[in-house]
Amino acid sequence: MAHTFLTPSKIISGSNALNDAQATIASCGTKALIVTDETMIKLGNSQKVIDILSANDQKFVIYAGISGEPNDIMISEGVKVYQENECDFLIAIGGGSPIDSMKAIAMMNQSKEPIASYMGKNIEMDLPKMVAIPTTAGTGSEATMFTIITDTASEVKMLLKGACLIPDIALIDPAFSMSAPKSVTSFTGIDALCHAVEAYTSKKAQPLSDTFALSAIKRIFNNLLIAYNEPSNEEARIQMSLAALEAGIAFNNSSVTIVHGMSRPIGALFHVPHGLSNAMLLEGCMKYVVDGAYERFADIARYTGVSTSTSDKKAANDFISYLTDFLAKMNIPTMSEYGIDKETFDGCIDKMANDAYASGSPSNTRKEIKVNDMIRLYKEIYK
Predict the structure, then answer these.
(1) How many domains does the chain have?
(2) Boundary (domain end) residue, out of 125, 145, 176
(3) Does one domain contain both 219 and 318?
(4) Are 91 and 32 a contacting pair, CB within 8 Å?
(5) Which residue(s) pair with 10 in the sheet?
(6) For the domain that residue 238 is a member of, what is the CATH number?
(7) Which residues on neighbouring strands pair with residue 160, listed in sequence order?
């Protein structure tokens, strides 16, 4: 069986990556739409991009209207700014939200159809050049053909996909993640871990995605706690940036599974950041699905050194135990601690389970997952 393997056209990574990318950025176009948020402006990260564009004599306009998880209204506003200012390429700087928004703006600039009409379809169109500069080590959006945008009318997080949505350039510079707060380091790092574990245990896994997934998991286990506890540790930040990229490449060429399927409705209805909702669900979901893929979870356990058992079942459960202990050190709030009311949550469970199932992600899990399984999981995971 043949497999297709997709990555950005160019990946530039390491210290001073932005400066080294100056000539590459110069070749992208004459006027950039910088898609970002107010935090990136306040931290001075957007200014670093502006300095490169100015050195290239490239014009630019900033769209900083991405606040929280992106929705269709934000995308429409971004398209308007892009068109009114006659931009011809895009740069996103920030976490997953600005990068996902950049993809959607580029797509909708070329489309006359509502963004919701693309849900469940494979998007094929010619897009302007896109440069992704992640400032968190987690989403992997800089390397994927996916974007997640909330439809405000239905309160559904739409998973949109197409190879054309992969950024042309992924620019991985650890300097941008050094200012991330501990909570962001935690949630985004666990998001990357989730990407890698789900990619490896997905029905759609393939040899090359396996290679990137295993490397990412090991790198995260070795470096996330250091980056969390020592925010100024540049080497740990570099390693986590690479791990997030690896994990993004892995699930881009495999898939995510039950965690992401169940996470998106929580984000859409309760406005929980994507990485955090994944973190809330990861342990409970993995405990539920491990018996459907003992061999794959055992592979992870042996590769990362958390088990030496020759029994797949024992090694897989060793991984789950290690994961439980690992997550406990990251101070992840429970849903109730985050402020999600139990009665309100319970009233949304049927909708969340059905929306999760409709996304298709849970069906990629090696263990068969039905709507009723997720209803039960939502009830068990709320704490």
Answers:
(1) 2
(2) 176
(3) yes
(4) yes
(5) 169
(6) 1.20.1090.10
(7) 147
